[in-house]
Amino acid sequence: MNEREKSAETENVPCEICLKEIPRSEAKIEEAADYVLYFCGLDCYKQWLEEDKAKKQ
Ligand SMILES: [Zn+2]
User: What is the Å distance from ligand 1's center to 6 Cα?
Assistant: First the structure.
């Protein structure tokens, strides 16, 4: 009956850093003005923060 809603909840998203697929509900989500990034965990999130900082220097 609610198959579509269920699959949306358990939709997998790729981690921005290691590209591992993770359930969206478990991902760390970083929302910016016009994009959304997903991370499998804090390690990848921190790595992205460092790279983002490096880019801006
Ligand atoms: Zn990752």
Answer: 24
pLDDT tens digits for range 15-41: 999 999 999 999 999 998 999 999 999
pTM for the full predicted model: 0.75
Q: Assign residue 32 the CATH number of its domain.
A: 2.30.170
Gap from CA of 4 to ligand 1 centroid (Å): 26
51 sits in which H/E element: helix 42-56
Number of domains composing the chain: 1
User: How many whole angstroms separate alpha carbon 46 and alpha carbon 9?
Assistant: 25
